[in-house]
Amino acid sequence: MSTAAPTWSVGDRHSEVLVENLTRTQIVMYAGASGDFSPIHTDGVYATEVAGYPSVFAHGMLTMALTSTMLTDWLGAGSLRTYGGRFLNQVWPGDTLSATAEVVAYRPHTADSDGQSDSTGEVDLEISTTNQDGTEVFRATATARVVA
Amino acid sequence: MTTRTFTVEAGLIHLFTEAIGDTNPVHHDRDEAVDAGFDDVLAPPTFAQASAHFDPNYPGRPTHGEPWIGSGKSATGTPPAILSGGTEMHAEQHFEYHLPMTAGQKLTIETANGESWEKQSKRAGTLHFSERIHTYRNADGERVLTIREVGVRTERSVESDVEGRDQ
Fold first, then answer.
1. C-alpha dihedral sign at A42, B155, B2, B91
2. ipTM score
3. Which of A12, A21, A109, B84 fits a 20 to 30 Å CA distance from B60?
4. Residues B73, B76, B80, B85: is their CA dihedral positive or negative?
5. pLDDT tens by residue, B100-113
6. What pLDDT, on a 0 to 100 scale, did the predictor assign at position A109?
7. Closest CB from B24, B27, B75 relative to A49
8. CA of B139 vs chain A CAs: smallest distance (Å)
């Protein structure tokens, strides 16, 4: 039975650059993969002349997906139990996005029926994704199963 | 409540993860996924969005033979009367994962309306929020995924603060 100190602590942080200089092509790739072809994301003529935006902008779900990749690269594929957030500001072609996740709670797995403690636990995370100007574009929380 | 089906396919998982830059081999290679303990190629956390491809009534995709809102000869393909200055936007998305979503699963998606509410925003006018709950079940009826989706319809186009956070 291991008595090793937990490797997860409240306040642990992880940061990554999610995308540099987001291209219109990547937005179109996401449209094609997700099935959301809304012209505010895919059609510059419509986005500017009809909808009144400076250009097309990224799907909020693209930002959420880019942020999720940081989480699963860090914590492991299939580790998320919950993941949810709010889209706060739009993401434009040319933007560079960075995200930071912070551990706000850690729950080591309690002993199971035969008295043996396994090596897993759960972390609660607060996540913030910002653009190159430091403007927050997406704010999320997540819970993940982790190996201690 | 509406119900539709969604078969999880490895090819679509590959396209989706290419688009989001997720190179983890468990999303691209069945053997790697099985070695990692999954039944087949694993869908990434937000992959359920791609079920829109198989929703016959999904509004974000042109329907063959019908006018589309986007540009062609003119800046929009629908008569101006249909257009308002406002925009339908995605405000929030919340995923709850119950079981791994993997290639080959034949899922049933139940969609139900949740709460709806309004908020005032200086820039966007009245914001109309509405919630939809999507429950994804496998062939055994077990829940694989639950999604709570919040949409917002604005009176005017806005470049930010769809949440009305400027209040």
1. positive
2. 0.92
3. A21
4. negative
5. 999 999 999 999 99
6. 77
7. B75
8. 20
